[in-house]
Amino acid sequence: MTTTYARPKTSHFLPAISTMASSYRNPQPPLGMGPSANMWRTNSYYKSSSALPLTFSTQRENFDLVRANTTFYPSNRTTLMTRYTPDDWYKSNHSNYRESESSRKSAERLRKDTIRFMQDKEQLTRRTQENTSKNIAERVNDIVFWRSELSHEIDNIVTETAALSEVKRRLERALAETEGPLQVSQECLYHREKRMSIDLVHDDVEKDLIK
User: Fold this and answer.
1) What pLDDT was estimated at residue 156?
2) CA-CA distance, 93 to 84, in Å (whole number)?
3) In terms of C-beta density within 10 A (0-12 exposed, 13-18 middle, 19 or more buried), how is residue 201 classed?
4) Which of 89-95's residues contact partners 24+ apart within 8 Å by CB, and which partners?
5) What pTM was estimated for this model as a whole?
6) Rounded mean pLDDT of the chain?
7) Would you say 65 and 8 are in contact if contact means Cβ atoms under 8 Å apart?
8) How many Cβ atoms are within 10 Å of 15's Cβ, its own excluded?
């Protein structure tokens, strides 16, 4: 950005190549610009520009070449002021490389920890499933056993209930058969009560009738 485009003031297509040309006899100094335009120039430019004793008025008098207009933008100045050195670039890349290597190692360690955690959980789940299946099988066997025992006890109770019912019917029949002898004994005792005075004896016959 410190250079300027200049060409000889001539109508020919090619410029003059003689060493005695006016462009060589009168070297063209840089344009005089304001302080805001010189903020981003390097120290070598100021050294070279300070060696030229010509003033702006002298430059205007000895101006033999047609100079192109150059526009200085603030963005260019800002960009040049924020330049970095190759050492900064190398350090930044080296830092990025170390960070990426650290991130890669952390990701690899996390992946290994995750795989180990998955394996541990899988083994724990398998053991828990095996224990649960074993407990369920044992519980099913116990339920089947006690169900068969209950069925057997129910059958025994039904059989005993039927036997008791039979005994009850037999007892009821026996009780019904004792109604006749009871009535006869009561009638005999009733007639024996008709005896008078000394005949009212509590003898063996009366004892047997009462029995």
Assistant:
1) 95
2) 13
3) exposed
4) none
5) 0.38
6) 75
7) yes
8) 13
CA distances from 195 to 191, 198, 206, 210 (A): 8, 8, 12, 17
Residue 66: beta bridge partners? 7
Identify the residue whose tokens are 């302080």. Answer: 35
What is the C-alpha separation between 167 and 159, in angstroms, rounded?
13
Dmax (CA) of the chain? 199
Tens digit of pLDDT for each residue in 116-138? 999 999 999 999 999 999 999 99
The answer to whether residue 33 scores a pLDDT higher than 60 is no
Please give, one letter per residue, the 3-state secondary structure of the chain: CCCCCEEECCCCCCCCCCCCCHHHHCCCCCCCCCCCCCCCCCHHHHHHHHCCCCCHHHHHHCCCEEECCCCCCHHHHHHHHCCCCHHHHHHHHHHHHHHHHHHHHHHHHHHHHHHHHHHHHHHHHHHHHHHHHHHHHHHHHHHHHHHHHHHHHHHHHHHHHHHHHHHHHHHHHHHHHCHHHHHHHHHHHHHHCCCCHHHCCCCHHHHHHHC
Q: Which candidate, 49, 12, 56, 52, places its Cα nearest to that of 32?
A: 56
Residues 6+ apart with CB under 8 A from 65: 6, 7, 8, 9, 23, 28
pLDDT at 100: 94
Quick: pLDDT tens for 67-112.
Answer: 445 555 555 555 556 678 888 899 999 999 999 999 999 999 999 9
Cβ proximity of 6 and 65 under 8 Å: yes
The span from the CA of 50 to the CA of 180, in Å, is 163
